[in-house]
Amino acid sequence: MTLPEIIIPEVADTISDKVTLEEFERVRKLVYAKFGINLTEQKRALVAGRLQGALHQYGYKTISEYLNWIEKGGNTEGLSDLVNRISTNHTHFFRESGHFDFFIKTVLPWALASSRNKNENDLRLWCAASSSGEEPYSLQMLIMEAMGADYKNWSAGMLATDISERALDMAQSGIYASEKVRDIPKHLLTKWFKSLPDGTYQVSESLRKEITYRRFNLMNDAFPFKKPFHSVFCRNVMIYFDMETRSKLVNKICDKLVPGGYLFIGHSESLGNINTALQYIQPAVYRKEG
Ligand SMILES: C[S@@+](CC[C@H](N)C(=O)[O-])C[C@H]1O[C@@H](n2cnc3c(N)ncnc32)[C@H](O)[C@@H]1O
Fold first, then answer.
1. Range of 17's domain?
2. CA distance 153 to 149
3. Which residues pair with 282 in a beta bridge?
4. Which of 26, 60, 86 is the last residue of a domain?
5. CA of 118 to the centre of ligand 1 (A)
6. Could you tell me the distance, in angstroms and rounded to a whole number, from the CA of residue 129 to the centre of ligand 1?
7. Which of 27, 36, 57, 284 has a Cα-to-Cα distance from 86 of 20 to 30 A?
């Protein structure tokens, strides 16, 4: 990836100078080992820029000092701070909207019927890189709209996870600036959000309580979920992982899908070259055999 155009070369050089090659290499190794995020050399200026804030916040003079602090054994605060700064949490409501149409028209009816056939009454969904909550709220809103009064007869809450505490805090609060909710259809905004005195919007309690937010690292060896999911959304996170990491992740997710369960990935991602029991259904939608 090339540097964003707005960074003119002189500025980029100045920023890069603030992280030595050796420091960048330390950040790169740490972030890859702990979070699977693959930082290329082109990200050096970006990393330098994002870590400057940490030096101010914690009072370190150099990135080496900050890294020494993070690398101290058992320092979860440091690691969490690092990933909050490095990861890109960009998301928006109804992002890649075709997925939501497909989910409501095809996946939801199938999942409810399949659950009913097994004398179960639950719908198990996982948003595996939920960022600040726009994705799980979009999906959950449409599910509750589609199921109407029948929703209360189901155990249909959603699990939403992310590595970033900062993103999870935002998601849990459910508070968004007015420009963030701009693309939500008016009738949904009126029904599922309340406007706050400061001009922001908050997701209604009735929608918020249906989503359980947890911190979860997709690099974990174990995916300790009691029951398999009917569908997993794992979108726009694998772009940061290399092929080996992606391959392991996709197979771990596949193990946690019911037979016939669906995986949604980002449209700029692909499972090509990954050996998996998932079959291609349409762009960025895969289904487990069974
Ligand atoms: C670009 S956002 C995608 C949000 C949403 N899924 C979407 O498509 O709009 C990527 C998210 O992945 C999260 N992430 C990065 N590495 C992760 C990891 N190892 N485990 C869990 N989440 C991770 C980041 O914190 C970030 O919130």
1. 9-86
2. 8
3. 285
4. 86
5. 33
6. 4
7. 284
Per-residue pLDDT at 204: 98
Neighbours of 1 (CB within 10 A): 8
CA atoms of 37 and 241, how far apart (whole Å): 5
Ligand 1 center to residue 132 CA distance, Å?
9
Is the Cβ atom of 90 under 6 angstroms away from ligand 1?
yes
Last residue of one domain, picked from the residues 47, 66, 86: 86
Judge whether residue 2 has pLDDT over 50: no
Q: Look over the chain and give the mean of its residue pLDDT values, rounded to a whole number.
A: 92
User: Is 258 part of a structural domain of the chain?
Assistant: yes
Domain with residue 48: its CATH number is 1.10.155.10
Q: pTM of the prediction? A: 0.92
**Single-letter amino acid code for the residue at 90:** H
Q: Tell me: the pLDDT tens digits for 66-110?
A: 999 999 877 888 999 999 999 889 999 999 999 999 999 999 999
Q: How far is CA 150 from CA 104, 138, 146, 287, in A?
A: 15, 19, 9, 26
Query: Count of domains in the chain?
Result: 2
CB atoms within 10 A of CB 236: 21
Residue 75: its pLDDT value, please? 80
- Residue 235 CB less than 6 A away from ligand 1: yes
Q: Residue 14 pLDDT > 60, yes or no?
A: no
Q: Relative to the CA of 167, which ligand 1 atom is closest?
A: 27
Query: Is residue 260 left, alpha or beta, with left meaning phi > 0 and alpha meaning psi from -120 to 50?
Result: left
Give the model's pLDDT for residue 272: 87
| Cβ atoms 196, 90 nearer than 8 A | no
